[in-house]
Design a protein that fits this description.
alpha/beta; single chain; binds guanine; Rossmann fold; 358 residues; 6-stranded parallel sheet; 3-stranded parallel sheet; 41% helix
């Protein structure tokens, strides 16, 4: 009886080992770039607490606590793209340009419109106006109650559009549900649409002749450039097809000669597509949807997601630690794309003011 149960346990152990090997093989997308790897020698102490239910002579339940040591191994460590640092460089350039404009008698003006009291939007708007003021831009905050009518918001946009002191207008999204967002965005004069969302500005990006590029995708491109990522010829996967991020992002990558796959909620074989990508841009708003094991070794991973975890902490769309162990470069959340979005808004705003001088 006891010998029989030992044989069963051994057979199960062999089966489990075979299953693990099959899983590891399936996840491995190919040869690893050894140049990107750093050898690692270490000791891992692992405390395992488990409950084992066994049937031998009678039925027994026991708790197992074990400490195991593992020595040796290899990890791939990504270079972390510091969005705060790159944003600070962009802001320095913007400050110099606002000063040059001030010397010519032009004070750069940005109007930021917030409708309703969504707390996350309020935080973003506060950060945008603070950054703008730090760069010498005259940023004004326009707060409207959540029950503002479409006509009321259109009237404000028209007033700002006609005001020569205002060079850029940003209406923070999402708007409360009763608004026709497309109509509001279309009412912003294209030469003041520093958010790059007006159909004319999006169309110009599609033509490869951008005037204002949507801020988050522009920030992602800047981060890729800062990370020394070669976009031309790369295979890029964009997750998310929003007008705010995914679609303009795909266009910018294609304009830079990447081969682009735009994935979304109906995409089949997401893991395989990501595993084949040299560049991954995750913008779906689903915490850790992109698993670290999917990432091609050495790939560039840009995480646009900002999700709040159960513990209140911010987490991205990418399983960060596991992805960082495989990627070549990766952005953190927070401190990656977010500061770049704001910096690119300032860059668009100063450009809007420069364009008025011809
Ligand atoms: N909400 C989140 N990101 C953005 C952005 O880049 N622009 C606007 N207008 N709203 C947003």
């Amino acid at each position: 009886m006891v010998q029989g149960s030992v044989r069963v346990v051994q057979a199960r152990r062999r089966q489990r080992q075979r299953r693990i090997e099959r899983r590891v093989d399936a996840r491995d997308p190919g040869p690893v770039d050894l140049d990107r790897q750093r050898r690692w020698i270490g000791i891992r102490i692992r405390i395992r607490i488990g409950i084992r239910i066994g049937i031998g002579i009678g039925i027994g339940i026991g708790i197992r606590i074990g400490i195991g040591l593992r020595i040796g191994g290899r990890v791939v460590t990504a270079t972390v793209l510091d969005g705060k640092l790159v944003a600070a460089l962009v802001k320095d350039e913007v400050r110099a340009r606002t000063q040059a404009l001030a010397a010519r008698g032009v004070t750069v003006g940005l109007a930021v419109v917030l409708v309703g009291d969504d707390p996350a939007s309020a935080v973003y708007v506060k950060a945008k106006t603070k950054d703008a003021r730090e760069c010498g831009i005259d940023a004004t905050d326009h707060r409207l109650p959540a029950d503002t009518s479409q006509a009321g918001l259109l009237a404000l946009v028209a007033r700002l559009g006609a005001d020569p002191r205002v060079h850029g207008i940003l209406v923070q999204l999402p708007l409360p549900k009763h608004f026709d967002t497309d109509a509001i965005i279309a009412a912003i004069p294209p030469h003041k649409d520093v958010d790059g969302l007006h159909p004319e500005n999006l169309g110009r990006v599609a033509q490869g002749k951008p005037r204002f590029t949507a801020c988050t995708p522009a920030g992602c491109m800047r981060l890729l450039a800062h990370g020394g990522v070669t976009v031309a010829g790369a295979s890029a996967v964009v997750l998310g097809r929003s007008v705010l991020v995914g679609k303009p992002m795909a266009l910018l990558l294609a304009n830079a000669d990447a081969t682009v796959t735009l994935c979304h909620s109906k995409t089949r074989d997401l893991a395989e597509r990501v595993a084949a990508a040299d560049i991954v841009i995750a913008a779906v708003g689903r915490p850790e949807l992109v698993r670290g094991a999917w990432i091609k070794p050495g790939a560039a991973v840009i995480d646009v997601g900002i999700n709040r975890g159960a513990d209140g902490k911010l987490i991205g769309d990418v399983e960060y630690a596991a992805a960082a162990a495989r990627a070549g470069v990766i952005t953190p959340v927070p401190g990656g794309v977010g500061p770049m979005t704001r910096a690119c808004l300032l860059e668009n705003t100063v450009r809007a003011a420069e364009l008025t001088l011809g």
